[in-house]
Design a protein that fits this description.
8-stranded parallel sheet; binds pyridoxal-5'-phosphate; alpha/beta
Amino acid sequence: MEAIADNLAAIRQRVDTACLAAGRHPSSVRLIAVSKTKPAEKIREAFDAGQVEFGESYVQEFLEKQQDPLLGHLPLQWHFIGHLQSNKVRSIIGRVALIHGIDRLSTAEELSRRAVQHNIRAEYLLEINTSGETTKYGLKPEELLAEAEAFFRLPNTALRGLMTIASPDPALARLEFRLLHNLLDELKKTAPDPSLLTELSMGMSQDFEEAIAEGATLVRVGTAIFGWR
Ligand SMILES: *Cc1c(COP(=O)(O)O)cnc(C)c1O
């Protein structure tokens, strides 16, 4: 038996402690409960314990959960944190608060086209490969800075910040989080509206405290809340 409410309380406590240790206000970090592969009942349990923001990685699974009668009427905020392919953009447009996993201009262009059609503003983050591991998705840091202007120009979109998945080793991860923070600072210098660039989505069950120390504003925690997948 997993006590989701207990796990959530423990994680929130650790988030608060990490914030205070970093001289940050606890409200400056939002906890996203990553519910991929977990059933709607578990999400409901987390919601009943006060959790509102959830992260999903797979389009089909996300759409099914969003329509689940257990959840359909709840004021949940969904984050799409998986790698997003262009041909899946139309399935999730308008259904998510924030898309974390865009890693190329062509996908952002498709997002922009669909957002124009829906007459909405789509908010997204760019995924950056901060570890240099070839198995990981993400723009290279130098690509980000070279292409930034093209992203900024896309109508009906708002680039809100950066996302990364760090190396398994927490000491390495910490350096990668620092790199992401520095990249966001660089990006702000060229942005038409730097005040939009507020988000650093970094840190998971194993390393969210390191991420908070380096400035994370969104931490994505799955296993430590819902148990092993
Ligand atoms: C699965 C996943 C998480 C959560 O990872 P845990 O180690 O279970 O906390 C966070 N971010 C992304 C992008 C994921 O795919």
